[in-house]
Design a protein that fits this description.
Length: 258
């Protein structure tokens, strides 16, 4: 883990999984099991349909410091956008965090860089903490384009983001080829990508903001590889997918960052 003054984050992206009862039970167990882990921020991102239920279940048992986030938003405050939810609606549901630019939104849903940027800026303007996700595909990795792809997605995603919002911005490097595949970047490969990301942030915003900003790793992080990944100087925690759907594995990953 970095010696810089950056509080690590372990965030669980539940994606389109779990029914209401399962989501509530998982949230309760994570909250109860992570009390006392105040040196690591913990955020969960349930499906939008379950945000309200999870919010109230956390209120009943005590959050244990667990924070709530939304997996998606729309960048307009209101209007004729059937099926979408706004940042104000997300905040009404108790969310303080938002994901933007996740590879599944980019490559499955088809969100382009300009839409990712609009959502990122809107989330920050609404006062949310935003996790902007970036990462290369397997073809791009094999072509040696990892750093170039990350730089392009960073520059596009952060276009127009004001400096006074940077304290609420987190970057998540998620190599697409490692998400849900069981393949994981080696600690050295992940560190090299994170270091390059921080260099781009320095070019955009200056040395201190780049040093202060947290950069997470995501891509088949599990209890047995989390400690080695999180020990790297430019990796400040993880955005966890499948392993966040079981409380014991998610809590073990939280322990690995301490």
């Amino acid at each position: 883990m970095s010696t810089a003054n950056r509080t690590p984050i372990v965030a669980g992206n539940w994606k389109m999984n779990l029914n209401r009862e399962e989501a509530v039970a998982l949230a309760r167990t994570v909250a109860s099991g992570s009390k006392g882990m105040q040196s690591v921020e913990r955020v969960i991102f349930p499906a939008a349909a379950h945000l309200d239920a999870v919010r109230y279940s956390l209120a009943e048992v005590g959050t244990g410091g667990v924070q709530l986030g939304a997996q998606n938003t729309w960048h307009e405050p209101n209007g004729a956008f059937t099926g979408e939810i706004s940042n104000e609606m997300i905040k009404d549901l108790g969310c303080g965090w938002l994901l933007t630019g996740h590879s599944e939104r980019r490559h499955v849903v088809g969100e382009a860089d300009d839409l990712v940027n609009a959502k990122t800026r809107a989330g920050l303007e609404a006062g949310l903490h935003v996790v902007l996700c970036i990462g290369e595909t397997l073809e791009q990795r094999e072509a040696g384009q990892t750093d170039a792809v990350n730089e392009r997605q960073l520059r596009a995603g952060l276009e127009g983001v004001p400096r006074d919002a940077l304290s609420r911005l987190v970057i998540a490097y998620e190599p697409v080829w490692a998400i849900g595949t069981g393949k994981t970047a080696t600690p050295d490969d992940a560190q090299n990508a994170h270091h390059a990301v921080r260099k781009v942030l320095e070019a955009l915003f200056g040395q201190q903001p780049a040093t202060d900003m947290r950069v997470l790793y995501g891509g088949s992080v599990k209890p047995n590889n989390a400690a080695d990944l999180f020990a790297q100087p430019d990796i400040d925690g993880g955005l966890i997918g499948g392993a966040s759907l079981k409380a014991d594995s998610f809590l073990a990953i939280c322990q690995a960052v301490l």
